[in-house]
TrEMBL record:
Superkingdom of the organism of origin: Bacteria
Protein name: EAL domain-containing protein
Domain EAL: 23-273
Coiled-coil region: none
Organism: Qipengyuania spongiae
Residues of the full protein shown: 371 to 645 of 653
Length: 275
């Protein structure tokens, strides 16, 4: 048992070290990546399930690394959060996304993901408003997606951030709904206009009678409260029908479109208007 334990420690060590090395690399290269133009914003349509038309696009950041290839945000956003680089990165993302969105028809909105650290940085709300102004995008066309981790600690900075932006018409969506602990409490407390039901309710081992009942209940609540409810991660027509029947009014996922660069988003919109 002793030898075994030793092996495990050794294994743990080397994988930890590899992980650390990779994080260090990412940390160092992230700064340069912005300058070198390796990052870009992709857009994934969010569809009105009643009409099949595009209602908005979610901005999703991509990093095309010259040696490592495409890095997923799940890999580098946490590193950017740890190092504080998320503030610069986040401002850049909002500015780029707003510029693309300013080219879309007025009734198409833009959803941007915000990390808690970004919101807690001084001047966060002002930074977002400046990006919108520079891009010529009305605040009423912006929706900020946040997860409940934002509210884990009661922070006055978060309160004023949300109040300041709500006052000028920016809307808030509760992302990854159903993965945390007390989302209903947050819905009661904060002015969300949209709930995004996590993909784990749409596909995977936990999908069934219970997940269906939860989506139904939350959809009913959303309708009563005049909130949108979007199902994420829709990959098949069966999943689309299921969430539509359960009462979700919006849907997003590979079934409709993968996240695409801005010029393809504009093409999707043009096609959508023709049909
Ligand atoms: P999220 O906000 O929950 O974004 C949804 C993720 O699901 C995206 O992954 C999207 O590409 C993926 N997705 C969409 N449709 C489908 C589908 O049908 N099937 C499957 N399997 N996946 C689908 P992505 O782009 O890799 O982003 C991962 C996470 O990284 C996001 O989760 C978000 O938390 C974070 N993130 C992405 N972009 C940004 C950003 O600009 N800023 C911040 N702060 N976080 C970001
Ligand atoms: Ca999101
Ligand atoms: Ca999500
Ligand atoms: Ca997420």
């Amino acid at each position: 048992a002793k030898a075994n334990g030793k092996n495990q420690v050794a294994f743990f060590d080397s994988s930890m070290t590899r992980e650390l090395v990779r994080r260090r690399e990412i940390e160092g290269e992230l700064r340069a990546a912005l300058q070198r133009d390796e990052l870009s914003i992709f857009f994934q349509p969010i569809i009105d399930l009643a009409t099949g038309k595009i209602r908005s696009f979610e901005a999703l950041v991509r990093w095309f690394h010259p040696e490592k290839g495409e890095l997923r945000p799940d890999e580098f956003i946490p590193v950017a959060e740890e190092t504080g680089a998320i503030v610069t990165l986040g401002n850049w993302i909002t500015a780029q996304a707003a510029r693309a969105a300013a080219q879309w028809p007025d009734d198409i909105t833009l959803a941007v993901n915000l990390s808690p650290l970004q919101i807690k940085a001084p001047g966060a709300a002002l930074g977002i408003l400046n990006s919108l102004r520079d891009a010529g995008l009305s605040p009423t066309r912006l929706e900020l997606e946040v997860t409940e981790t934002l509210f884990l600690e009661d922070s006055p900075t978060v309160v004023s951030f949300i109040e300041e932006l709500s006052a000028v018409g920016v809307r808030f969506a509760l992302d990854d709904f159903g993965t945390g602990y007390s989302s209903l409490g947050y819905i009661n407390k904060w002015p969300f206009s949209k709930i995004k039901v996590d993909r784990s309710f749409v596909s995977g081992p936990n999908v069934g009678r219970k997940s269906d009942a939860i989506i139904r209940a939350v959809s009913q609540m959303a309708a009563t409260l005049d909130m949108d409810i979007v199902a994420e991660g829709l990959e098949t027509i069966e999943q689309v029908s299921a969430v539509r029947d359960a009462g979700c009014n919006l849907g997003q996922g590979y079934y409709f479109s993968r996240p695409v660069p801005d010029y393809l988003a504009a093409m999707l919109l043009a096609q959508d208007r023709e049909s």
